C-alpha cells in the first residue's frame, strides 16, 4: 500500500483522531516541503501552525466529527501552495488526498487579470466596441455599446436579441457583418442627423479567426468623428477661399499693375515735369508686381 501511494503524483496523508500524522506519501512531502520522518506522529496543526487559517481546520473537523467526505480548494499561505482537497473519514481518523493546483490557479489569476485589464481598456472609451458570432448574435460589448443598446431598445444586455435591431438605419451593420464574414477587414463613414445636427461616425469591422484561421465572428467599433469631420470641412472651405484669393491675385490684381507698368514705360521722363514722380511710381509698381508674383507662386498648388 505504501509503495502504491508513493508512486502516485498527487499528495496523500492520514491523520488519527488526535490529528497526528500517521502516513504521508512522497508527493505530499514535496508539496508541503517536509519529510515524513519530520512530521510522522506530530500534530498537524502544531507542525503547520498556520494551517488553521482558511478552510483547512473547519473542513477537516467536519469530516472527522460528522463522518462525511468533503471537497474544497484552499491555499496554504506560508508556501503559496494551492490544493484541491478531498477529505475522507476512516475508522481511525481521516485521510487527505490533494492535487497541487498552484499552476492552474496562477493561470486562472492571469486570465482573470488579463480579462479585467481588457475590460478596463475597452470601457475607458466612448467608442462602441462589440463582437458578433456567425449568426450575427452579440457575443460581448463594452459599457458604451450596452448604453447605446439600452437607449435604442430599452433592453438590458441579457434581454436584447437581433429582432430588436430592425430599423432601416441599422441595416448597414448586418450588411457589414456579412461582408466581414468573407474575411475582409474594412471601415466606412456614416453620416446621419440627430436632433437637427449632423453626426459622423467611423465604422470598423474586423474578422475574428479561430486556431484554424476560420472566420468565426466579427469585431466591430464605432467612433464619433463629428469633430474631426467638421474640422476637415472647415479646412476644405478655407482652401476653397484661398484658391479664390489666388485666382484674384494672379488674374484680376496683376492686370491693372501690368497696365500701370506699361503706361509708365510710355512716358518720356526727360520731358515730363513729373519725371521724379513717374520714376517713383514705376518703382512702386514693380515692387507691387513682385509681391503679387510671390503670392501667386505660394498659392499655385491651391489653384
From TrEMBL:
<feature type="domain" description="PAC">
    <location>
        <begin position="182"/>
        <end position="237"/>
    </location>
</feature>
<protein>
    <submittedName>
        <fullName>PAS domain-containing protein</fullName>
    </submittedName>
</protein>
<dbReference type="InterPro" id="IPR035965">
    <property type="entry name" value="PAS-like_dom_sf"/>
</dbReference>
<dbReference type="InterPro" id="IPR000014">
    <property type="entry name" value="PAS"/>
</dbReference>
<feature type="domain" description="PAS">
    <location>
        <begin position="1"/>
        <end position="67"/>
    </location>
</feature>
<dbReference type="Pfam" id="PF13426">
    <property type="entry name" value="PAS_9"/>
</dbReference>
<dbReference type="InterPro" id="IPR013656">
    <property type="entry name" value="PAS_4"/>
</dbReference>
<dbReference type="Pfam" id="PF08448">
    <property type="entry name" value="PAS_4"/>
</dbReference>
<dbReference type="InterPro" id="IPR000700">
    <property type="entry name" value="PAS-assoc_C"/>
</dbReference>
